[in-house]
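for the writeup, i need someone to sanity check this before i put it in the appendix. the sequnce is what the collaborator sent (i think, or maybe the updated version? ugh). structure was predicted straight from it, no edits. if anything looks off just tell me and ill rerun, i have time this weekend
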Amino acid sequence: MSAVGALRSDSPPRRFRLTTEDVREGIVWLAVATSFFVMFEPAAYDLLIVGSLVLFAFTGLKLPRTLLPFLLLVILYQLGAVVTLNKVFDRPDTLKWTIVGIFLAATGVFFALFLAERTEERARLIANAWLVAGVISGGLAIIGYFHLVPFSDKLLLFSRAKGAFKDPNVYAPHLIFPALVLIQRLYSSDLKRSLIWLALLGAVMAGVFLSFSRGSWGHLIASAAVMTTFTILVAPSPGSRARILVTCIAAAGAGALLIIGLLQIPAVGDLFAERASLEQNYDVGHGGRFSNHVIGWRIALDQPLGIGIFQFGKVVGADVHNTYLNGFLSYGWLGGISLIVMTALTLVFGFRYVLVATPWRPVFICCFSTWMVLMVEAAVIDVDHWRHQWALLGMTWGFVAANAAWERRRAAEPTGSTRAVPG
């Protein structure tokens, strides 16, 4: 036996070592991967995020100065909720609602801090975990809608797929980010991998479609268009851009075939025809969503401290269905203005940094494209207490902080040799 062979045979076998970082990031992965199940509260996601907050608090989490504006605006926003709570403190569920809001805002800050460090690894971790959640959630929609298991009715609400969520209108938007990640991977994968991504995308898109959420249909189309535009802009060559366009057309065609196939089922076709109407009785006319918005803004302008959570519904007999208006009504002018400034500032910084050539740019593009369109949809639905809205908002700011640090490092290097990857 050679000396090298003897040395190898005598070498002790490598042992698997679980580091603190593995545990920290593993809990976050598990939290995101289980985000598809929120039928009960607190959900597994909530408990795991709390565990992550505690663990990171004890093991270290840095606060980059780039995140200070975001942190300040989140604090002011929630401070507005606390101040307005004094007006309705004795009303049922108002304290609980405020505490939940503060917790969700804290999750947004956590995701920002989490992604500001080890950004490449953690961006991939979150994207993969959300893909797991999205595919499982889409599968549950298919199982529920076509009654493939005895408990199928638990996965539906008014014949609309909701998976393991409580509401189809919250369920479907949760699927948009993983759908974009899958579409983007189609743009750069070989044929074998593309078939895998396409199969997974089919499950996720089926979930969005079978939710019969008009807003989510538009959300998916608009977010995919924005993401594709960004991806084309950062493509390294004309050939890459042409491939993206061809793949985009092919994927759109496959999606259209999937929808056409589903529409051949009578129950699906009938509900689609009903839901696809642009005018619903709860949107237009006296007492509809938009006329109530006008009433709400008049009230908000007269009440600097707001009127308190749940009070608008008692005045007009319907929920606010507008995140920005609800900010003024339930958080007062302090909260409402803070929300608008935070949204505007996120858009400014997002557009400023989303195209910077970093290894995590693809995930950043998907995240920002999803969040940006969601906040347009927020004008007709209240997304303030949606878990994934705060996750996407925090992720966007985490990417912004990471990209700002990336640019500073590149500026400090005379050769400018910092590694980057194309879109």
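The first helix runs from residue 3 to 10. The chain is about 70% helix and 0% strand.
thx in advance!!
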